[in-house]
Amino acid sequence: MNVYLLQVINGVGIGMLYFLLAVGLSIVFGLLRFVNFAHGAFYALGAYLCFQALQFGLNFWAALVLAPVLIGALAWLTEKVMLRYVYAQPHEFHILITVGLALAIQELIIVGWGPLGVDVPPPDVLQGVVMWGDFVYPKYRLFVIGFTALLAMALWWLLEGTRIGSAVRAGSESTEMVSLLGINVFRLFSLMFALGAGTAAIAGVLAAPIRGAEPFMGVEALGVAFIVVVVGGMGSFAGALVGGLLVGVVQSLMSTLWPEGARLMIYVAMAAVLLLRPHGLLGRG
Amino acid sequence: MMASGKQWLIRYRYWWLVLGITVLLPLMMRSGTLATEVLIYAMAAMACNLLLGYTGLLSFGQGIFFGLGSYAVGLALTRFGGLPMPVALLGAAVTGALAAGLVGWFSIRQRGTYFVMLTLAFAQMFYFIAYTAPGLTGGDNGLLDIPRPSIAIGGHALIDLTSSWGFYGFVAVLFLIVFALVLRVTESVLGRTLLAIRDNEERALAVGYNVRAFKLLAFVISGAVTGLAGALHAMLTGIAPLANIDYHASEMILIMTVIGGTSNIFASVLGAAFYVLLADWLSTLWPRWLMLLGFLLIAVSLFMQRGLWGLGASVATRLRGVRSAAATQEERA
Questions:
Q1: Which of B113, B229, B309, B323 is a Cys-bridge partner for B267, taking CB atoms 3.0 to 4.6 Å apart?
Q2: Does the residue B41 lie in any domain?
């Protein structure tokens, strides 16, 4: 089988995870211009909760449901007790407070699970490979592509087809106008913040069987999520999708062509996109 | 004559404070290495403050220039037959300035949060460049055995820098020079223009300033100073590790700057001293001290937004208020 085709499919899988990682960040930013540097920490925590669930004798599917719920609740709580008090401040305090939160979570992970990484096996049903003719592919990675595609559709429906979704989209155009229409923007924001953290946690759970879990995965993920939103355009659902897929495929293809430089190349891709389209591929000017 | 004496004291207040710190550090501390580290990070934090406090640019990429400075001085002193140290330090500053020019040129096309995210992405990019070029940077191990040559004229060694206090003296002199330069920049027309850009970019643009060029200039100055600080750090520890160009290096420099406060350049010195000494003390108590730092950051952003300097200033105002209130009471009595 063609090695490039294989890498493109791998790239789509990774790219869908990147999309899931970036979409929460993007929605939260769109709504209140709040950039969450703790987003990667929620992702890392998701991967560790998956590991812990398996340790407790629960299965992967339980982790896939429990981790986003727990982390969403944690995010909702932190938003209530501290983050909302800095909204009115300049954005360096948004960054500072979430950087502090990310540091605290990272160190809590090390206290709880140790500084070295842990391995997470894929669930039994998804072990092994699928074979169609000469097409051979790991089952788990196919599952990730399918599952994230379903989630993406659900999120798209939430944003485009529901009342909450239209409030979110209107809110990212003009927060003041939406509150004048009688919608409680702060409650909406709490909800979206929890949802964003939840999607990051799902990405963490899904990534755990592929790359394991380690305490510093959050920082790396944050960097990638930023690239995805910069490439795709901030606050745009489609932008996060396109950006995520592009970054995933570039990284995956480059890992065949130039393994050491694969992760470097996604930054080069970012610089190239910014030179041509300063507001991202799908960003509004 | 008393009044003019007092004016003199106030006019040069930052100078008294900075001289006080460089003299007090050796008197108060047993470790020359730690004292030197305070001054080195103070330079890096001042450079960061020039961007954050004076131009309104929150750069998450200061670690790039710090790390590149370390690598530049390491390469210059260990390879090319060992260049003279002043040349090596100059080279590090120039490397920092060039990298800042490049990163700045890309990043200042964006504003606000986009700008911050871009600088962070660049920090990651340079980290991976350093990681993938072990021939130049030593990869994971870093550059080792970076010497601390003596200052020599015509082959005669004048000042020996191998002792930790000897090196402290050398760094202290450079620190004072850098402080003077940065202070001069902030008090010059250039500094005022940067403040104008920080306060209202559209207005500065409308008045006719080339906002991009000024921002880029601030970036280049900041990069040069940070590169020099990185070089001195490599000479202090004898290694140029990957950690110096890491995300956490950028984060640390930014945290020092914000904890100190961004209202003036001296606040950054305060922030660096506070961070380095606190880190040294806490890390002996508990290996996971970064968690406490995380909580400290949350507390600073909620309750102490003007940093240590702002805290000191408001305490001073309150004390003065109490004193003058007491004085009026006495007068009444």
A1: B309
A2: yes
**Residues A223, B132: C-beta atoms closer than 8 Å:** no
Gap between the Cα atoms of B298 and B302, Å rounded:
6
Residues 61-100 of A with CB under 8 A from B: 82, 85-86, 89, 91-93, 95-97, 99-100
A102 near B CB under 8 A = yes
CB nearest B121 (choices: A33, A110, A270): A270
**What is the count of structural domains for chain B?**
1
Pairing of strands A135-138, B156-159: unpaired
Residue A107 forms contact with B (CB below 8 Å) = yes
What pLDDT is attached to residue B333? 52
Which residues, other chains included, contact B295 with Cβ-Cβ below 8 Å and sequence gap of 6+?
A: A100, A104
Residues A267, B295: C-beta atoms closer than 8 Å? no
Res A165 pLDDT > 60: yes
Position B120 pLDDT exceeds 50:
yes
Following DSSP, what letter does each residue of B245-269 receive, concatenated? GSHHHHHHHHHHHHHH-SSSHHHHH
Give pLDDT tens digits for B143-201. Answer: 988 888 877 666 666 677 888 888 999 999 999 999 999 999 998 989 899 999 888 88
**The tokens of A224 are what?**
């990638």
Please provide the average confidence, as pLDDT, over all residues in chain A: 89
Residue B1 domain-assigned? Answer: no
Written out in words, the top-level CATH class of the domain with range A3-276 is mainly alpha
pLDDT score of B6: 75
Looking at residue B144, which CATH number applies to its domain?
1.10.3470
What was the pLDDT predicted at B1? 47
Of B52, B129, B297, the CB nearest to A264: B129
> Does A230 lie at the interface with B, CB-CB under 8 angstroms?
yes
In percent, the amount of chain A with pLDDT more than 90 equals 47
Tokens linked to A259: 């393994």
Which pair of tokens denotes residue A167? 């409030």
Q: Measure CB to CB from residue A230 to each of B117, B128, B301 and give the nearest one.
A: B117
Range of the domain at B104: 33-319
pLDDT of residue A67: 95
The DSSP result for B87-128, as a single string, is HHHHHHHHHHHHHHHHHHHHHTTS-HHHHHHHHHHHHHHHHH
